[in-house]
Write a structure and sequence with these properties.
Structural class: alpha+beta
Number of helices: 5
Strand content: 25-35%
CATH class: Mainly Beta
CATH topology: OB fold (Dihydrolipoamide Acetyltransferase, E2P)
Order of helices and strands: HEEEEEEHEEEHEHH
Shape: globular
CATH architecture: Beta Barrel
Distance between the termini: 75 Å
Helix content: 25-40%
Strand order of the largest sheet: 1-2-3-8-7
Radius of gyration: 20 Å
Number of domains: 1
Largest sheet: 5 strands, mixed, barrel
Length: 177
């Protein structure tokens, strides 16, 4: 028995050494270390981009309509999908503290992470309401949520919309002509 206790102590010591650097991170400040925690006042910039105390964070694993992207509702009327998606995110974070775990930075240095309000994952909430799409090539985390929103024809699924990555690709092709 004493030998087992000794090994458990060594294992606990190794686990303590492996604690991520986020534990020492000051809320509201960022670093280049993955899993940096940001807490504070949030503001919606796009349907998949918010700022926490002025630091922009893209919601990881989701993609919402871009500036200028239009869609059609179930009656064929054109809507400004970008503005609606941004306003839905704004409603989710309004007057609440936002907590983001920055997990990565893209090639442009933009922070990406999972953000929550009162424990609710904002990326998942946007997908569940049908105002953001899951990036299936990056994560499978929201696939069931997206399937539900699609089956209930919620948000963008109620009418016609081009997925944002397809819309961006098409616009680039058109501009190249």
């Amino acid at each position: 028995m004493p030998r087992r206790r000794c090994c458990e102590g060594a294992l606990a010591a190794l686990l303590l050494l492996a604690v991520p650097a986020q534990a020492a991170t000051v809320p509201g400040k960022t670093s280049s270390v993955p899993n940096t925690l940001l807490k504070g006042r949030g503001m919606a910039i796009e349907g998949d981009l918010l700022s926490v105390n002025g630091t922009p964070v893209r919601l990881m694993g989701v993609d919402a309509p871009d500036v200028g992207q239009m869609c059609k509702n179930r009656y064929g009327h054109e809507l400004d999908c970008f503005t609606i998606a941004r306003d839905v995110l704004k409603t989710l974070i309004e007057n609440e503290e936002v907590e983001c775990t920055v997990a990565d930075q893209d090639r442009n240095g933009q922070k990406q992470g999972e953000c929550r309000v009162r424990g609710v994952d904002l990326g998942g909430a946007m997908v569940a309401r049908g105002w953001a799409f899951t990036y299936r090539s990056l994560t499978g985390a929201y696939q069931k949520t997206e399937a539900y929103a699609m089956s209930k024809r919620m948000g963008l699924w109620a009418g016609q919309v081009e997925k944002p990555w397809q819309w961006r690709s098409r616009r680039l092709r058109e501009q190249a002509r």
